[in-house]
Design a protein that fits this description.
The complex is a heterodimer of chains A (112) and B (115). Chain A is an all-beta fold and 112 residues long. Helices cover 0% and strands 54% of the residues of chain A. In chain A, the strands form two sheets. In chain A, strands 2, 4, 5, 9, 10 and 11 form a six-stranded mixed β-sheet that branches. Chain A has a five-stranded antiparallel β-sheet with strand order 1-3-8-7-6, with no helix packed on it. The radius of gyration of chain A is 13 Å and the shape is globular. Chain B is an all-beta fold. In chain B, strands 2, 4, 5, 6, 9, 10 and 11 form a seven-stranded mixed β-sheet that branches. Chain B is built from no helices and eleven strands. Chain B is globular. The chains are: A mainly beta (112), B mainly beta (115). At the A-B interface, strand 5 and strand 10 of A face strand 4, strand 5, strand 9 and strand 10 of B.
């Protein structure tokens, strides 16, 4: 059974600081997804990582994938308040049409 | 273009009643998924459609839950004899099943409250 673990589950940061969210998964997969969810809203796709060593960056967020270690990281650089949200990683089994298995989510609060 | 739409946005029902939740996927997306999000269980997969058929129903929690998709487009999730534990946000997603990515795009969700 594919399992996905995120840590930390809650992260309170000061503006301007850097931090990393970790996502571990239990079985072989080359496809990992990061989503953002604002309170009361749906999931917004942030990054799609499709191969070992993949790195994607958007603004202050950078995601990477190490399929050998079964690990993805979401790095936050110089956090700003607008980044406050819940971040989910998700993995599928690498087949078309597969369901996504989500981590529990990391609640990020950036304090001014 | 238009994203995934869902209706109703909120539904309050009494225990034992049946409810229908609707999802309209992104045009051209052949794959459609239903997930459920609740405080205790996080994000759980319910069912996947490819076209009008459902090759993966493994996440449906009981036989009170059913779903159908017609015309390769709109899908309806039906919950019969609702129970309080069915209270959750029901999310629909769609994707293009082609190429390398299985990126799924989510609708705004239906918040179901069973009294």
């Amino acid at each position: 059974e594919l399992k996905v673990e995120q840590n930390p589950l809650f992260l309170s940061m000061q503006e301007g600081k850097n931090y990393t969210i970790y996502c571990n998964y239990s079985t072989t997969s080359d496809r990992l997804y990061w989503y953002r969810q604002d309170p009361g809203k749906s999931l917004e796709s942030l990054f799609v990582l499709l191969s070992n060593g993949a790195v994607k960056q958007e603004g202050r967020l950078m995601a990477s994938l190490d399929t050998k270690a079964r690990l993805s990281t979401l790095h936050i650089t110089a956090a700003v308040h607008d980044l406050s949200a819940t971040y989910f990683c998700a993995v599928d089994r690498g087949e078309y049409g597969n369901k996504l298995v989500f981590g529990a989510g990391t609640i990020l609060r950036v304090k001014s | 273009g238009a994203g995934v739409s869902q209706s109703p946005s909120n539904k309050v029902t009494e225990k034992g009643k049946d409810v229908e939740l609707r999802c309209d996927p992104i045009s051209g997306h052949t794959a459609l998924y239903w997930y459920r999000q609740s405080l205790g269980q996080g994000l759980e997969f319910l069912i996947y459609f490819q076209g009008n058929s459902a090759p993966d129903k493994s996440g449906l929690p009981s036989d009170r839950f059913s779903a159908e998709r017609t015309g390769g487009s709109v899908s309806t999730l039906t919950i019969q004899r609702t129970q309080q534990e069915d209270s959750a946000v029901y999310l629909c997603a769609s994707s293009v099943v082609a190429g390398v990515s299985n990126e799924q795009f989510f609708g705004p969700g239906t918040r179901l409250t069973v009294l």
